[in-house]
Amino acid sequence: MTPVSLSKNKRAVLISGAGIAGPALAYWLCRAGFAVTIVEKAGALRAGGYPIDIRGTAVEVVRRMGILPRLREAHIASRRFTFLDADGGTVASIEPRAITGGAEDLEVRRGDLSASLYALIRDDVEFLFDDAIDTLDHFEQGIDVTFRSGRHRTFDLVVGADGMHSQTRESLFGPESQFHRYLGYCFAIFTMPNTLGLSHELVLWNTPGKAAALYAVGNGDELHAFLNFHQPQPPFDRSPETQRDLVATVFADAGWEVPSMVEAMRDADDVFFDTAGQIRMSHWSRGRVALVGDAAYAPSFLTGQGSSLALAGSYVLANALVTNPDHSAAFTAYDRDLREFVGMNQALVDNGAARLFPTTAQALAQRNAMLRGLAAMPAEPANPAHSALVLP
Ligand SMILES: Cc1cc2nc3c(=O)[nH]c(=O)nc-3n(C[C@H](O)[C@H](O)[C@H](O)COP(=O)(O)OP(=O)(O)OC[C@H]3O[C@@H](n4cnc5c(N)ncnc54)[C@H](O)[C@@H]3O)c2cc1C
């Protein structure tokens, strides 16, 4: 396997979104001689978020980018995952690899991955923070873009890497509801003080349809808190206050440390609330615009494959653009080379990816029996779906 080859092409590409997919795509396109601009609606890189996994094919992508050593250093080597029952009693305590598999796989803070990607490209890419695309107008040779700031520029191509709730997708393909497959859970993620003295470990509390996790990444004074709950219909009100109220209501009678988590959520300034869902589209491009990462094929946190698909998808899209001077041919190749891999990883939700979050007492009892069994078993092998894509 060889990396994306260099070319003398000087096409100008605008990428919307400086999350994971956007900077990864920018890296490969810059290397191939494209002129790349990234517009990001936040005022700076968004460093927050729960730890994310980089697995299988995506490990090969970060190796080719030269950031594997840095990410190995940032790897979160947890000592144990402990599962608790409704009253906080221990159900099972497990060595993490027994659940995650894949000896080469990495788990890093989302901010560490984002910063590693940014460091690779900051001198070569034009960043427009605190701005966003307002309108896109195709003409024969390119696209006229107006920005919310009032800027006006022309590009050869535009790529939407603006996440699950992509504006680029909405403006080109229509409302998110057409592409969103709701998976029946809502979640809130935030940080809170480590008053429990947890260190290098994850503690997960469950009752049917409810889960609360505290993740001590290292032995610092901060914990990543996660509250996840089953909700048959997705909530429609997206205001932060209503979301916090919903979480507080759902967990009102919960045991263990959950009341203090809910209290901490009220004070947290970094709450990330979303529904667990997937984006499924029959096309990832239209005209001179393509989508990459969560914007095109979010697999949901239940698969743990969001960042890996973003990294692999960025590589495949860049490779297609570098090897096909015609953008239509490139977008066809991108679709052809990536779709099966996306499908296999999105299908993980139907094949047990939600097993950590059972919604009935019976399913929870089965999961707990499975966990007790795992505690006595050797590490699970890596999931074949994670490595199913062989990079050109
Ligand atoms: C702050 C944050 C925290 C996250 N935390 C978690 C987590 O804890 N667990 C998890 O599984 N996944 C989390 N994710 C999602 C995870 O990062 C993605 O699933 C995965 O990395 C795919 O990356 P992406 O680049 O496609 O999308 P994202 O990482 O979501 O990046 C999208 C980027 O586009 C920007 N953007 C959005 N709209 C516009 C617009 N109109 N114009 C310009 N820019 C725009 C966003 O600010 C963001 O920087 C988080 C994402 C963010 C942004």
Automatic annotation (TrEMBL):
InterPro entries: FAD-bd, FAD/NAD-bd_sf, FAD_aromatic-hydroxylase
Organism of this sequence: Nocardia tenerifensis
Coiled-coil parts of chain: none
Record GO terms (molecular function): FAD binding
Start and end residues of each FAD-binding domain: 12-322
Name of the protein this chain belongs to: 2-polyprenyl-6-methoxyphenol hydroxylase-like FAD-dependent oxidoreductase
